[in-house]
Amino acid sequence: MSKPTLSYLETYIWSGLVLNGLRKAAAENNFMEILPSIISSSYEPGAKHSFAVLGDKNLPQVISDESGNVQVKGKEKYYLPVSHVVEKQMSLEFLEKVYCVAPCLRLVMDGEESSGKHLYNFFQFEIEWRTSSMEDVFLQGEKILVSLAKTILEDQITPQSETGLRNIRALAKSNYPTITFSEGHRLIGNSPDLRRDFTPEEDEKLTKLFDIPFWIYDYPEGVRDSIYHQNDEGSYDTYDLMLPFGYGELTTGGIRPKTAEEILQQSKRLGKSYSTAYAEWKDRSQIQTAGFGIGLERIIRYMSGCDSILDIVQYHDLGPNRNINKDFFKEKEAI
Fold this sequence. Notes:
The protein has 335 residues and is an alpha+beta fold. It starts with 7 loop residues before the first helix and ends with a helix. The strands form 3 sheets. The protein has an 8-stranded mixed beta sheet with strand order 1-6-7-12-11-10-9-8, with helices on both faces. Strands 2-5 form a two-stranded antiparallel sheet. Helix 1 crosses helix 3. The chain has 10 helices and 12 strands. The protein is 33% helix and 21% strand. A hairpin with a 2-residue loop joins strand 3 and strand 4. The protein has a single domain, classed as Bira Bifunctional Protein, Domain 2 (BirA Bifunctional Protein, domain 2), CATH 3.30.930.10. The chain is globular, with a radius of gyration of 20 Å. It holds the Pfam family tRNA-synt_2. Its EC number is 6.1.1.22. This is Asparaginase. Keywords: Aminoacyl-tRNA synthetase, ATP-binding, Ligase, Nucleotide-binding, Protein biosynthesis.
């Protein structure tokens, strides 16, 4: 596991600077900020949700807080967000282009604790607008990130490491390349017919081949755990924006399903994530959108040049992220 390189003061400064830069870039491109939904009664297709339990005029009763056997009794339960992919689409019934800074809670899978890229609770800079064009998405995403990079480069206050400066300058370049999912596998020596996602090691290997951010698109069936429009060739109009120099995935998104039937069929294939609310909304509104979510802590890690995403956890955050590596945070307090 990497060592901390940022002081808590530097973590706060970098977080504020990147947030301000992203908001500035979104405003330049006519996006309106909306408020994220913190809890929901609806299951997000493909998500592995955690729960919030509400009491009835009193706090919920904690029957057991034993690790691995937590039991809570209350009046109501709601789903905590893994992303805000459905909610931001629904807001476009009234608006043209939206974004929000969305708190998310995700289970950290085996092996991810030491990746330097994964957190339990994190933030997504969620972007969505009315479009059905991947070319439009690639151009819009590039505009936002180039603007962000230029804003940071113009800042004369924040100390920038050699690695961070290299990373920011790469982000500021134009004409991000695009490659298909099959091409990505071919570039790292795999069969282009391979129908599984990249492993963390492959992700790092692939992105070390680039010195500029790039898009991966055209995913085969069975790779994603969310739902997207299936094109005429049978693959899915979903994409990732990858950071160069081995940093890996920054954003995931896609062209949303175009019909209620498409939503229901894919939701059923994903198992217990089946929910009719999203499909009913699509059937009624007939609104077509696309978008993506920028991992906030990931872009801050990349631009600051620090080694581990744990360095972006702020001092006041006393949630489960601190259990990923307690020694890391003890060392960070000494900086």
